[in-house]
Amino acid sequence: MPELPEVETVCRGLDPVMTGQRIVAADVRRPDLRWPLPERMAERLSGARVQRLGRRSKYILAELDTGETLIIHLGMSGRILIHAPEAAKPAHGPGAFHHTLPALEKHDHVVFDFETGARVVFNDARRFGAMDLAPSDAVEAHPMLASLGPEPLGNAFDEDYLVVRLKGRNTPIKSALLDQKIIAGLGNIYVCEALYRAGIAPHRKAARISEARVRSLVPIIRTVLGEAIEAGGSSLKDYRQTDGDLGYFQHRFRVYDREGASCQTPGCPDVVRRIVQSGRSSFYCPSCQR
Length: 290
Description:
By secondary structure, the protein is α+β, with helices and mostly antiparallel strands. The chain folds into two domains: 4-141, MutM-like, N-terminal (N-terminal domain of MutM-like DNA repair proteins, Alpha-Beta Barrel); 159-284, Helicase, Ruva Protein, domain 3. The protein is built from six helices and twelve strands. Helix 1 crosses helix 6 (211-230) and helix 3 (159-166) crosses helix 6. The protein is elongated and about 60 Å long. Mean pLDDT is 92; it is low at 87-98.
């Protein structure tokens, strides 16, 4: 599933194409994704102008001039691609051009055509993604957003906050960091990478980690996420940027998906190991992470 860096990368790619532009036509090509799509979705979107585009956790939020906000979640395999019209010579009129767009594909489920001629397509082969429309003035109360914790790149997420939230928690630190009510947007990849850099074992109980080590996690989490966003996210299976390109952060993984590989800490003789926690793989170095 795309995590915060991947969703942020998609959001940044969409921003210059969607923000300030009017949707001249919305084509909703099936009634549901993971859940039923909003009633009259195509009608409510057609003619609307996107006033601003943003991200909350792993959700993309498109605020419209109709007073509603479109909420988009990519799910396991969802991707959003931008198609720009390609110039093509017509059969008549030398020197004249008309513009064409690529043909829609089987899993292109929702299509937005903009007044600029650009087309934005939501493609989701497994249909685990989701879309909904909510009143813009109450979007934070939407069931998908209401219980989310602070953004890890925002001001509300700081050392004091994390110390308080982890105090007395008798759960593994990795499970605590994946709890979206504590921190919004963190996922399996970046928690593994952050814990490696912090030297904390993923199965260590959160309550048994010293305050100093908990505080050290905050800048490390920010750094890992920042590096991943700069690299365009991580492409392991289905994730693509809005232009179809892959992300590149997977080439910088230090532990994630590197089971059996040598630890990258200079002088460490150990190898990366994998354990399963709550059905998810955790990768770590048993010598460097305690």
